[in-house]
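Page 37, continued from 36.
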């Protein structure tokens, strides 16, 4: 795949802007705020688009949207033109906001090829590379300061790694087999999760439902028996209520007959006394009696003697007249002034505390014309022990030299060889003769003598001794050369120390870089302290301006510059507020005093009215006494005389009143009927009560109070009717409930079938799990095949980009953690090295992953944002030279703000396959 151009129709700060890319390496250089990271994100979005799935967006998608949505407008669109390895030219267009206008169009034939690369609901150009939008970011699309992200995304890359391994080797089918088993297990077993639709969850749900149905059927059967008992109890209660109501009716009829009989007897008695003529009445002085009663009522209801209110309305009015007017201005410190004073005090306190912590002046380090690394190397060279010539090499040379100088001893060896040869010949003869045992002994002795003679001759061989001496002398000479070399190096180190004006002391040499580091740190700390103090002083100035503006806004007089003067004005403003608050408190009493004045005036008016009412009552009672010809000296005497007059009149009317009451009683008893009709009604009631007593239960009648039977009868009748209705309703509900009962036996059979099905699914799950366990070990073969491939890719460039410090690498394909080593063969985790070195190593890992994972697919481009920001100038050039060589095989796009990268690109990017472009700053709108 090759990216021709990317157009940001509406992306971040860009609107309708286009970037074109070279076939090989494109370097885009720009300062801060030139949109490098935004263009990097736009290229990624134009190739891969955004996920368009159900549910809420993921955290990464939300952060991407918050960072790169257009600054203005609602549209968020980006597009790209790419060339595929098969010759097709494709235009990718992504509506990142709506997710609807997303397409991949073949510009040669005009057809839509989106279906080839659909992933997570949207076209994803990374599919042509054998990746997806997430694994593309983890490998080929390196974001700013995100070089090590490949380790965090290791889990997401495992599927891609296994696919690559399976396509590259025939021995790595375990992963595919495990995946088939897991897929089959997920499809035909599934997980025990509430939202699962697979057989295990369905079997568990069916068993749970069957057990619940069985339990429901059993509970329903028990409920039916309970309801049947309640219906029987309601039937019995209805019968008892009806019997009690009948007994109450009998008791009430007896009581009614007794009352009617008593009424008939009273009518006979009063009729015999008065007949049909009513008694006479005396009403001649009723009007006067009514006048007397009215006069007494008026006198008794007169108001009490009033008292005047204290203080009087005149005194309250005088106090109101003395109150001051309401003051004009703030009566309490305004919040803006209060907050400004607090902010100024806080800023002043912070500056004082900051001044107390002023750092000391750093000590000046020794001035030496050598770098820190050279001084450390000199110290290490001085500490290294001087080698010596090993004693075994000296002894070996002395022994070999003595062997050469010793005289030869050929005579003895010759004699032994001769005797041995004779013994061998004699032994052969005897072995062939009649005495083979003796012949074998003689033969063996001859062989031994020949061997001893040959050994003696070899030991005294001058050529062999000379060769041994030459070898020993060479080793001795090499050892002396090593000692001389170490001595010369030590001497050179001492001479270099003298040139620098330093003593050849390792500790003193190491102290100089340490002193330089301390001095640099001290200067940085002092600089930070000064910057912080300037910021605190600026905060005080700003707080002073804010306070002065707040005081002016509240009507206070203006002040000149100076925190102390402005604070003094603020204090004066606070005191004036306090004085106005005191006056406002006094003026605030006006409303309460006015209310008190109105109350006093109303009380004085009520007292005058009460005095007038008492005078009128006294006059009324004295006038009534005069009308009755009673003598009274005062209103109190007149009231007592009138009360005695009424008492005497009441006694006279008592006798006439009793006759009137009996006549009224007779008329009430008759109620418009004749005495004969009342007598017949009483006799009929007696007969009815006797009949009802015969029909009712005597025991219940005896339990009822006949005096209250009539009052209780309506309630008892309602209770009997309600009990009958309730019993009938319960019988109907019981019949309806019985019609819908579940069969307990059928529910038990369903539960048993569900248990058998669940056992079958669990047995299948157990079988699949055991099968998977046998294949898990085979899966490790995937990592064993992938690890050498990734390690070999790293080794091609590792030594070059790390300046020869590291030459070998191991990659853990599970976690993508890298270990490296140098000539010492001591392995180091890459992420524990310096940040720049770690980034360079993991950049190589990303290149290796991109090469390995996309093998068999389109060539994967590399999109790199500030990948050399933590490298020194030398390694920056080495990394860029490596990327230039990689650009011979795949497209490489590099964003950077470094001048070193720009200079390298000017010098190295020649020809039509490469391009250097400088990005202008983004206009501020």
């Amino acid at each position: 795949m090759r990216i021709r151009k990317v157009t940001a129709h509406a992306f971040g700060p860009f609107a309708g802007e286009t970037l074109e890319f070279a076939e090989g390496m494109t370097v885009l250089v720009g300062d801060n705020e030139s949109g490098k990271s935004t263009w990097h994100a736009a290229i990624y979005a134009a190739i891969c688009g955004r996920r368009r799935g159900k549910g809420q967006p993921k955290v990464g998608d939300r952060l991407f949207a918050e960072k790169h949505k257009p600054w203005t407008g609602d549209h968020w669109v980006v597009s790209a033109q790419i060339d595929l390895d098969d010759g097709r030219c494709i235009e990718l267009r992504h509506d990142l906001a709506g997710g609807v206008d997303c397409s991949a169009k073949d510009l040669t034939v005009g057809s839509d090829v989106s279906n080839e690369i659909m992933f997570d609901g949207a076209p994803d150009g990374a599919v042509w590379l054998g990746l997806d939008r997430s694994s593309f970011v983890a490998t080929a699309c390196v974001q700013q300061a995100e070089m090590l992200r490949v380790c965090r995304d290791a889990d997401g890359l495992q599927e891609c790694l296994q696919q690559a391994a399976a396509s590259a080797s025939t021995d790595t089918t375990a992963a595919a087999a495990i995946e088939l088993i897991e897929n089959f297990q997920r499809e035909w077993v599934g997980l025990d999760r509430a939202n699962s639709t697979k057989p295990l969850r369905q079997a568990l749900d069916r068993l749970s439902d069957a057990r619940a149905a069985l339990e429901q059927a059993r509970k329903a059967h028990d409920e039916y028996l309970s309801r049947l008992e309640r219906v029987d109890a309601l039937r019995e209660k209805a019968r008892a209520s009806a019997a009690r109501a009948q007994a109450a009716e009998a008791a009430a009829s007896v009581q009614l007959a007794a009352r009617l009989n008593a009424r008939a007897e009273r009518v006979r008695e009063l009729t015999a006394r008065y007949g049909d003529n009513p008694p006479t009445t005396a009403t001649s002085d009723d009007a006067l009696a009514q006048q007397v009663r009215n006069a007494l009522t008026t006198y008794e209801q007169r108001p009490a003697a009033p008292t005047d209110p204290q203080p009087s309305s005149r005194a309250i009015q005088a106090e109101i007249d003395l109150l001051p007017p309401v003051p004009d201005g703030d009566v309490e410190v305004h919040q803006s002034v209060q907050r400004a004073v607090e902010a100024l005090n806080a800023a002043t306190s912070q500056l004082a505390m900051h001044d107390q912590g002023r750092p000391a002046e750093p000590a000046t380090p020794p001035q030496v014309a050598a770098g820190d690394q050279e001084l450390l190397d000199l110290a290490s060279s001085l500490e290294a022990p001087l080698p010596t010539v090993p004693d075994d090499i000296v002894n070996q040379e002395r022994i070999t030299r003595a062997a050469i100088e010793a005289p030869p001893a050929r005579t003895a060896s010759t004699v032994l060889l001769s005797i041995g040869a004779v013994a061998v010949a004699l032994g052969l003869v005897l072995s062939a003769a009649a005495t083979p045992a003796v012949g074998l002994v003689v033969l063996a002795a001859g062989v031994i003598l020949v061997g001893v003679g040959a050994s003696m001759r070899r030991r005294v061989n001058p050529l062999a001794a000379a060769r041994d001496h030459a070898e020993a002398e060479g080793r001795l000479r090499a050892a002396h050369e090593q000692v001389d070399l170490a001595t010369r190096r030590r001497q050179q180190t001492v001479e270099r120390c003298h040139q620098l004006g330093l003593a050849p002391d390792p500790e003193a040499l190491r102290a100089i870089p340490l002193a330089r580091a301390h001095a640099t740190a001290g200067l940085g700390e002092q600089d930070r302290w000064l910057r912080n103090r300037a910021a605190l002083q600026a905060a005080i100035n700003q707080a002073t301006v804010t306070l002065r503006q707040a005081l002016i806004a509240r009507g206070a007089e203006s002040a000149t510059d100076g925190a102390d003067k402005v604070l003094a004005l603020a204090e004066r403003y606070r005191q004036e507020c306090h004085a106005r608050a005191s006056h406002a408190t006094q003026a605030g009493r006006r409303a309460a005093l006015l209310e008190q004045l109105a109350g006093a005036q109303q009380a004085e008016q009520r007292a005058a009215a009460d005095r007038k009412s008492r005078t009128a009552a006294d006059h009324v009672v004295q006038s009534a006494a005069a009308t009755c010809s009673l003598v009274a000296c005062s209103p109190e005497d007149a009231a007592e005389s009138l009360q005695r007059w009424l008492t005497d009149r009441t006694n006279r009317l008592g006798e006439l009143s009793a006759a009137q009451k009996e006549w009224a009683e007779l008329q009430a008893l008759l109620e418009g009927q004749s005495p004969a009709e009342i007598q017949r009604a009483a006799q009929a009631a007696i007969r009815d009560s006797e009949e009802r007593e015969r029909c009712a239960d005597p025991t219940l009648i005896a339990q009822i109070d006949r005096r209250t039977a009539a009052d209780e009868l309506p309630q008892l009748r309602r209770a009997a009717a309600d009990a009958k209705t309730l019993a009938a309703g319960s019988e109907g509900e019981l019949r309806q409930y019985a019609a819908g009962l579940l069969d307990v036996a059928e529910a038990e059979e369903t539960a048993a079938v569900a248990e058998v099905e669940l056992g079958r699914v669990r047995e299948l799950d157990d079988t699949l799990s055991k099968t998977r366990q046998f294949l898990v070990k085979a899966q490790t073969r995937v990592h064993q095949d992938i690890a050498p491939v990734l390690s070999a890719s790293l080794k091609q460039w590792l030594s070059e980009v790390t300046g020869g410090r590291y030459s070998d690498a191991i990659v853990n394909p599970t976690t993508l953690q890298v270990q490296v080593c140098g000539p010492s063969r001591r392995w180091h985790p890459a992420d524990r090295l310096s940040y720049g070195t770690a980034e360079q190593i993991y950049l190589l890992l990303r290149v290796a992953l991109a090469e390995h994972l996309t093998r068999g697919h389109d060539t994967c481009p590399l999109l790199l944002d500030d990948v050399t920001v933590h490298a020194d100038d030398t390694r920056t050039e080495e990394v860029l030279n490596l990327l230039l060589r990689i650009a011979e095989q795949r497209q490489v796009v590099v964003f950077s703000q470094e001048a070193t990268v720009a200079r390298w690109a000017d010098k190295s990017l020649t020809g039509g396959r490469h391009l250097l472009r400088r990005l202008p700053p983004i206009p501020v709108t």
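The longest strand covers residues 2-10. Flag for discussion at group meeting. Confidence is low (pLDDT under 50) at residues 153-160, 162-173, 407-411.
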